[in-house]
Task: inverse folding
């Protein structure tokens, strides 16, 4: 049994360390102060201390002679083993904590409080049996098809078969987003959400469209607080009061389905709720205007008018876009007023509407990762709706048709209808903010905040 001793003064330990001459603990002892020998059944005065214990910071370990030390070696060396194991664990823990909190750009002047938590985990793999877009295996993540059509204002008109392909893929994307929604709570990292999204995509025979798109490293975008869009999932744990936008796009049977929503993490303040609600209202007012013959530029006038009336600004650097067999294509759909978007809505057009609304100014900048877009004026929240919202958002893919259609939403388990004139929202249901006007249901439904 090893006797417990009081800790040595630092100068004594240093002196003992300096007295070492031979590396083997069984052959070399350092003369220190007088103590009682720690060998069992020996109470002689101890003048020597184990040099290995000194190196490992183990307190005590005094012996009266080399003979007592050698005789105790079988049990004494176990102290060394345990101390080394504990040290390795502590170093590993400290290393992980240091890595998680590593700032990859120490000289960068952040506009808000959010920081990246690096290093990122490696890019996830997709089974070879799943159909993938042309950029999936490109070394630069470049879509050659998109590059070929870059700059064109010609808007593709989808036929019945292509429209059905979009219906299917948007439904699958909705299912994936619902799984991400169930993950959102304080303490969960956006990396964990991305992992769940990736598994949900592959389980549905879908390729997660963001993965390797121009080398984007993850399977979805997660934008927290002042991040406007294209946030990269990392090891930062979500905190009470955060607002989180999750942007999902999946690729299935040759078509992309794009949607997102913004979620409240725990309890949020009234300002966050008002931002998200206003963003959603901007989206719905824009949707109400969708019909053949409307100019795409008109949607920006509608969105900015409502945002400004509520004291918010509209991001100008990012816009809605056409989507089908290509992830991003014509038309461009700006969300701000007096824009110069080209094109008139026609039956068979499919596009997204993604208003991004801010509490402060509309100006943005991008982190050095080349993706993460943030508000420039230290305002911590933004909202996107298509949308997406920073926090308050939803993405919607809209299909222009020439016949009246029905939009389907849900509150809890109950499906309710809202009659629309000439557009269809290619989603299965809402899980965040549901504002229903002119609902054809006997019951009234208040706004639902989740």
Result:
């Amino acid at each position: 049994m090893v006797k417990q001793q009081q800790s040595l003064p630092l100068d004594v330990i240093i002196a003992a360390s300096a007295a070492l001459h031979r590396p083997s603990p069984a052959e070399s002892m350092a003369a220190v102060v007088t103590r009682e020998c720690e060998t069992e059944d020996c109470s002689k005065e101890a003048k020597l201390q184990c040099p290995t214990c000194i190196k490992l910071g183990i307190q005590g370990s005094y012996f009266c002679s080399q003979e007592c030390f050698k005789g105790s070696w079988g049990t004494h060396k176990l102290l060394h083993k345990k101390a080394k194991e504990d040290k390795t664990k502590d170093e590993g823990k400290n290393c992980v904590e240091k890595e998680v909190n590593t700032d990859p750009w120490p000289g960068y002047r952040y506009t808000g409080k959010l920081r990246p938590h690096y290093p990122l985990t490696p890019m996830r793999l997709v089974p070879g049996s799943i159909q993938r877009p042309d950029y999936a295996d490109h070394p630069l993540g470049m879509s050659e098809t998109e590059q070929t059509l870059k700059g064109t204002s010609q808007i593709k008109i989808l036929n019945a078969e292509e429209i059905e392909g979009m219906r299917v893929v948007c439904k699958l994307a909705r299912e994936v987003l619902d799984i991400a929604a169930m993950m959102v709570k304080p303490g969960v990292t956006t990396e964990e959400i991305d992992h769940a999204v990736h598994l949900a995509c592959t389980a549905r025979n879908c390729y997660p469209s963001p993965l390797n798109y121009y080398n984007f490293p993850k399977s979805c975008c997660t934008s927290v607080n002042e991040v406007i869009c294209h946030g990269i999932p990392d090891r930062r744990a979500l905190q009470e009061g955060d607002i989180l936008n999750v942007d999902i796009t999946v690729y299935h049977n040759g078509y992309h389905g794009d949607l997102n929503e913004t979620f409240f993490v725990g309890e949020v303040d009234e300002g966050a709720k008002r931002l998200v609600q206003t963003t959603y209202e901007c989206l719905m007012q824009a949707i109400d205007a969708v019909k053949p013959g409307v100019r795409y530029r008109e949607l920006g006038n509608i969105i900015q008018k409502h945002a400004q009336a509520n004291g918010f600004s509209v991001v100008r650097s990012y816009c809605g876009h056409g989507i089908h067999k290509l992830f991003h294509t014509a038309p461009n759909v700006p969300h701000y007023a007096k824009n110069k978007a080209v094109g008139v809505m026609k039956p068979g057009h499919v596009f997204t509407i993604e208003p991004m609304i801010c509490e402060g100014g509309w100006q943005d900048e991008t982190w050095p990762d080349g993706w993460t877009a943030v508000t420039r004026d230290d305002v911590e929240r933004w909202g996107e709706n298509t949308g997406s919202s920073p926090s308050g958002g939803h993405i919607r893919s809209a299909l222009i048709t020439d016949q009246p259609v029905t939009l389907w939403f849900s509150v809890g388990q109950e499906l309710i209808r809202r009659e629309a004139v000439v557009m269809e929202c290619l989603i299965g249901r809402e899980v965040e903010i549901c504002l229903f006007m002119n609902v054809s249901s006997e019951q009234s439904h208040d706004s639902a905040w989740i």
User: Anything to note?
Assistant: The two ends are 60 Å apart (CA to CA). Confidence is low (pLDDT under 50) at residues 1-33, 385-396, 403-450.
